[in-house]
């Protein structure tokens, strides 16, 4: 009963009003709070961008100092969270561990349920942004069976993350500032992307007025999938499978025949080159200048060239997206493939929280509850089991 518009995947349905991120997919434009992504990637830092997304304006020097202090203050985890991570099998996927441990934070901070208190929201937001790298790094070290490295709050956000991941495996480890900068840019590029699958999950779950850890836990689950954040991991597996440039034409034929997708290509919104992919290509050059070129780069470049000239991809407006080159950089930075999506999650956390915060304060927002087009049986008589 009642009329409903059938729109699977919300291709044409706006689920909210938002002032956080603007995208023009045909023109390849991405702006956070009105600032072009290119300018933010060049001039800003991840924490500054996080502040911008959450507060609507770039911080003054004093505000940035306070914000950096607030984040730094919350980087440590309760020791029981460490035990939670230790309970996972040695081969647990870090995204599974991240999803579970972020959700578990809701039990450590029951005060987070006071979502209509602005100061409390601010506290929980700082907590979660601060703890994400620690959780990601602990999940990584757990997989390796290595001792955890606690946060060093003298370091910057991104440097601290790298140190927690890699420090004790190489005692002299000190992150190269060029690599820290490249990783910081990658986090900026991932920081928000309006109503993507995981943000929609955060908003949808958040609309029940649950605490932000539970809502973001749901977002991490959505991001895990190969059509969303998991694509960066899938791209590397694909490039490795292709193996040499000679195999590309055969691979492309398989894609066109519908056997598989060209991972890292295509986007619901961008029908033009993803502006983030352009910036990543440049960051890749900076990283490879330090680490040496990733041998899979040659295959990626050739694959992109062939696809961009092929009618199948041209007709469907399929271009490289953010995930096509990001995995190559992550690999050069020594991240194993299963950590790639964790990096995406750390980057996306300010965006999820900015959107959650906007949702909570939006008086017009209602609990997410889409309609359906019912295709099943109508009323039937119950049949006793002996008669079925
Ligand atoms: N390889 C081959 N064909 C493709 C691809 C691809 N990567 N992407 C879309 N198509 C085809 C699709 O088969 C369809 O063809 P047809 O019209 O003949 O049926 C047409 O292009 C339109 O695709 P769609 O599935 O309707 O597009 P969508 O907006 O529902 O899906 C997408 C968008 C990103 C899920 C999809 O392009 C895809 O699966 N890409 C590969 C996975 C990927 O790289 N994901 C990362 C997305 S960007 C970062 C993020 O959001 O996490």
Automatic annotation (TrEMBL):
Biological source species: Friedmanniella luteola
Pfam families given in the database record: Citrate_synt
Family: Belongs to the citrate synthase family.
Family matches, as Gene3D superfamilies: Citrate Synthase, domain 1, Cytochrome P450-Terp, domain 2
Keywords: Transferase, Tricarboxylic acid cycle
Pathways per UniProt: Carbohydrate metabolism; tricarboxylic acid cycle; isocitrate from oxaloacetate: step 1/2
Protein name per Swiss-Prot or TrEMBL: Citrate synthase
GO biological process: monocarboxylic acid metabolic process; tricarboxylic acid cycle
Molecular function as annotated in GO: citrate synthase activity
Active site per database record: 267, 323
Catalysed transformations (reactions): oxaloacetate + acetyl-CoA + H2O = citrate + CoA + H(+)
GO cellular component assignments: cytoplasm
Keyword match Transferase: yes
PROSITE patterns: CITRATE_SYNTHASE
């Amino acid at each position: 009963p009642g009329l409903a518009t059938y729109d699977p995947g919300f291709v044409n349905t706006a689920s909210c009003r938002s002032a956080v991120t603007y995208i023009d997919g045909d023109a390849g434009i991405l702006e956070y709070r009105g600032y072009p992504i290119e300018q933010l990637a060049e001039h800003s830092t991840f924490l500054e961008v996080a502040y911008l997304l959450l507060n609507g304006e770039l911080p003054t020097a004093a505000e940035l100092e306070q914000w950096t202090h607030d984040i730094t203050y919350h980087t440590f985890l309760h020791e029981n969270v460490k035990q939670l991570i230790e309970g996972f099998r040695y081969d647990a996927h870090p995204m599974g561990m991240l999803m579970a441990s972020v959700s578990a934070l809701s039990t450590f901070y029951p005060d987070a349920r006071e979502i209509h208190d602005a100061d409390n929201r601010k506290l929980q937001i700082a907590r979660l942004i601060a703890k994400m790298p620690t959780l990601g790094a602990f999940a990584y070290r757990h997989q390796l069976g290595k001792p955890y490295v606690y946060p060093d709050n003298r370091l910057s956000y991104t440097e601290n993350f790298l140190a927690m991941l890699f420090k004790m495996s190489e005692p002299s480890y000190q992150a190269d500032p060029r690599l820290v900068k490249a990783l910081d840019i990658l986090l900026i590029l991932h920081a928000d992307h309006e109503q993507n699958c995981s943000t929609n999950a955060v908003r949808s779950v958040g609309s029940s007025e649950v605490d932000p850890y539970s809502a973001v836990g749901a977002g991490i689950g959505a991001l895990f999938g190969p059509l969303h954040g998991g694509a960066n991991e899938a791209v590397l597996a694909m490039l490795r499978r292709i193996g040499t440039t000679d195999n590309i034409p055969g691979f492309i034929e398989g894609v066109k025949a519908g056997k598989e997708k060209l991972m890292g290509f295509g986007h619901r919104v961008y029908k033009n080159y993803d502006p983030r992919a352009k910036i990543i290509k440049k960051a890749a050059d900076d990283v490879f200048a330090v680490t040496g070129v990733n041998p899979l780069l040659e295959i990626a470049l050739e694959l992109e060239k062939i696809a961009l000239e092929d009618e199948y991809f041209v007709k469907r407006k399929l271009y490289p997206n953010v995930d096509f080159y990001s995995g190559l950089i992550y690999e050069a930075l020594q991240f194993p493939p299963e950590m790639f999506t964790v990096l995406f999650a750390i980057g996306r956390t300010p965006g999820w929280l900015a959107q959650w915060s906007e949702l909570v304060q939006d008086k017009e927002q209602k609990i997410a509850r889409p309609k359906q087009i019912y295709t099943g049986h109508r009323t039937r008589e119950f049949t006793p089991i002996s008669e079925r």
